[in-house]
Design goal:
This protein is α+β, with helices and mostly antiparallel strands and 173 residues long. The chain contains five helices and seven strands; from the N terminus they run αβααββββαββα.
Amino acid sequence: MNAPDIGDSLQAMAPTARHDDDWQPLPPRARALYILSTALGLGAAALLGVGVMSLSRLHLLAYFPLFFTLAAIAAGALYGNRRYVNTRWRLNADGFALQRGRLWQVETRVPGSRVQHLDLKRGPIERYCRLATLVIHTAGTRHSSVSLSGLDEHDAERLRDRLASQTDDDDDA
């Protein structure tokens, strides 16, 4: 009688995958965009906070502002990486779906019949990385939209065209 393999028992105890097979991850080159944008955003907020503390004379040490800013940038880089890893999308016959987050999970579904119009946005850094942001405007108020940044530019164009054709098909019926 053979002893059970520890790897088999660990694999059996492992939680099931969070995402189904048809959920698509963002392309690997989008990781840098997520990390950089979040790190710079938190770094700028930290500099603003340091400025307010300096004006109110709450800083304790001469190096505290530098440490605080660098810590915020590092935390932003870690958080940006987690945002990248935990963002998935899919397009099927029902429409577009977007999953974000791990601790606070958000799943957004946009039925094809609710799509009003679609935008592709490409800033200079996205163009350089061959990425795009897909914005799906839905029926409702002017703030009714879903956007997904960091998509491969070809995927974004394909998603836009397919969602637009689903919308046209719904209008014809």
